[in-house]
Amino acid sequence: MKRANLPALTLLAAALALLLDAAALQAGNLNFLKDSPLRHFSKDDSNLMLKNARAVLDSSAANASQTWRNPKTGASGLAEVKAQFNAPDGTPCKRLRVENSAKGIEGEATYTVCKYSDRGWALSGQATPAP
């Protein structure tokens, strides 16, 4: 299978799509995702990926991991928690590794996401473990 070499902007878009509304994958100009599995996702694929990632993030298991697969399209993926910590302000955070595959293209990335009381899980580029 071809492995996607995703630039930072693509990874950010993938993370936002993972954490935000699945419609984000279907709307707008996504030409920069042409070598990404996300580019080939159906709406159902996107929804399955999001549901899977949220289940892993919401799990209390330290090393939660779960796969998903859409038998209609063949797309699949994995989300797994690599680490958990509290940011200095007490916000719970996790390092989430995501793998996706569609139409022979694979991609993976790891993100820091934190759970905020007012907006739920969101990307955090600055969260680090409390000293």
Question: Using only CA atoms, what is the Rg?
Answer: 14 Å
Please, what is the oligomeric state? single chain
The H-and-E topology, N to C, reads as EHHHEEEEE
Query: Ends: how far apart?
Result: 42 Å
Biggest beta sheet attributes: 6 strands, mixed
Number of strands: 6
Low-confidence spans: 1-13, 18-27
Taken from the alpha-carbon principal axes, the silhouette is elongated
- Which structural class is indicated by helix and strand composition? alpha+beta
Portion of residues within helices: 10-25%
Could you say how many structural domains there are in total? 1
How is this structure best described in words?
With 131 residues, the protein is an alpha+beta fold. The protein has one domain (2-123). It is elongated. The chain has three helices and six strands; from the N terminus they run βαααβββββ. It has helices at 8-19, 23-26, 43-58, and strands spanning 2-3, 65-69, 76-86, 92-102, 105-116, 120-123. The model is unreliable at 1-13 and 18-27 (pLDDT under 50).
Set down the secondary structure blueprint.
Layout: E1 2-3, H1 8-19, H2 23-26, H3 43-58, E2 65-69, E3 76-86, E4 92-102, E5 105-116, E6 120-123
